[in-house]
């Protein structure tokens, strides 16, 4: 095994299946993005450390990060962003430590958690509480932080406000949870699948709207239900048409709409008057959390029962069933993220 300078070898214990994995596999399909090892929402244990590693030691529980935090670059030093000057949110970086039969295999989003082992730079790993259950907190590696943070960090939802969350997958449900945590008075859950509404209640949704039940634009429906529009809207689908609907569902003057769902296939557009009238349109990557700082904080919030994680899990599956897990998510059968649990070389005492 090659141990790279400033890198750690991490045993992956558990990982979630995120829609971004499917996006790369079935939608983005960039010709230079394969072959790659998918997965970016995992948790594990440091197996060994390379030369120059100062922050970690074997046995540490960690969560791999697809956004690094070096704490030294222009972006890391700026409190206005969680992005970094190096790799972030790249579908399949050419800077990979994986090989198969002597040929390079790309490391998806710099993490590749659909694997028993991965190799990570120390600036892209978060050390977490040693008591945290890895088969739960792995979900904080992407989806839950993305949705929750979009509400509390990016939108900055205020107590007593009215919110609308478009799309009730794991990210959308986490956004609902974030709105609830921030003190929103009314939270509209918007989705075309009514089976998801009951689960949304668990996370704090107060109202449920299915666009298919109306013969007018959803923005008009929400405007009529809220005396002019919601204070905050969050688009958690990754669909440019829904992004426009979310913006236009906001009240003029101060409404804030946040793009959360990942896509880079089409342009997004609206009429200029929507913004001239005082609405704000902004994006959120990983919920605005500075990764190495924010993820341990979210783990603590879970341990303190301030953030839900168990309720997101619908399935426990093995790595050998990964294709079945992807098919479940691909066909949208379940309200939340499909989850699978890797029982590889890690003993029960570490989980």
From TrEMBL:
Q: Which residues form the Alcohol dehydrogenase-like C-terminal domain?
A: 170-298
Q: Does the keyword Oxidoreductase apply?
A: yes
* Coiled coil, from the record: none
* Keywords assigned by UniProt, alphabetized: Metal-binding, Oxidoreductase, Zinc
Query: GO biological process: what's one of them?
Result: formaldehyde catabolic process
Q: Which cofactor does it need?
A: Zn(2+)
Record-level Gene Ontology MF annotations: S-(hydroxymethyl)glutathione dehydrogenase [NAD(P)+] activity; zinc ion binding
What PROSITE patterns does the record tag this protein with? ADH_ZINC
Q: Which ranges carry the Alcohol dehydrogenase-like N-terminal domain?
A: 9-128
Q: Cellular component terms, GO, for this chain's entry? A: cytosol
Which InterPro entries does its entry note? ADH-like_C, ADH-like_N, ADH_Zn_CS, GroES-like_sf, NAD(P)-bd_dom_sf
The family annotation for this protein states:
Belongs to the zinc-containing alcohol dehydrogenase family.
In Swiss-Prot or TrEMBL terms, this protein is called: Alcohol dehydrogenase 1-like
Q: Supply the source organism for this entry.
A: Seriola lalandi dorsalis
């Amino acid at each position: 095994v090659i141990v790279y300078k400033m890198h750690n070898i991490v045993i992956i214990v558990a990982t979630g299946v995120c829609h971004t994995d499917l996006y790369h596999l079935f939608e983005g399909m960039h010709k230079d993005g394969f072959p790659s090892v998918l997965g970016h929402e995992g948790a594990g244990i440091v197996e060994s450390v390379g030369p120059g590693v100062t922050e970690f030691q074997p046995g540490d529980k960690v969560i791999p990060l697809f956004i690094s935090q070096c704490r030294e670059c222009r972006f890391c030093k700026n409190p206005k962003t969680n992005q970094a000057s190096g790799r972030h949110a790249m579908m399949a970086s050419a800077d990979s430590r994986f090989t198969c039969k002597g040929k390079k295999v790309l490391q998806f989003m710099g993490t590749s958690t659909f694997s028993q082992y991965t190799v990570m730079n120390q600036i892209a790993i978060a050390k977490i509480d040693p008591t945290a259950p890895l088969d739960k907190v792995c979900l904080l590696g992407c989806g839950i932080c993305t949705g929750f943070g979009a509400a509390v960090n990016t939108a900055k939802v205020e107590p007593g406000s009215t919110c609308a969350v478009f799309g009730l997958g794991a990210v959308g449900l986490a956004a609902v949870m974030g709105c609830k945590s921030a003190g929103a008075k009314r939270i509209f859950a918007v989705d075309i699948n009514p089976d998801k509404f009951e689960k949304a209640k668990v996370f704090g949704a107060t109202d449920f709207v299915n666009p298919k039940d109306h013969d007018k634009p959803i923005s008009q429906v929400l405007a009529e239900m809220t005396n002019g529009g919601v204070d905050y809207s969050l688009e958690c689908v990754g669909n440019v048409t829904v992004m426009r609907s979310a913006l236009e569902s906001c009240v003029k003057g101060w409404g804030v709409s946040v793009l959360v769902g990942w896509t880079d296939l089409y342009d997004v557009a609206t009429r200029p008057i929507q913004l001239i009238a005082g609405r704000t349109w902004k994006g959120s990557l990983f919920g605005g959390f500075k990764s190495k700082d924010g993820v341990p904080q979210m783990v603590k919030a879970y341990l303190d029962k301030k953030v839900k994680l168990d309720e997101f899990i619908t399935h426990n599956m093995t790595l050998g069933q990964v294709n079945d897990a992807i098919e479940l998510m691909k066909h949208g059968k379940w309200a939340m993220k499909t989850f699978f649990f890797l029982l590889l070389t890690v003993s029960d005492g570490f989980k």
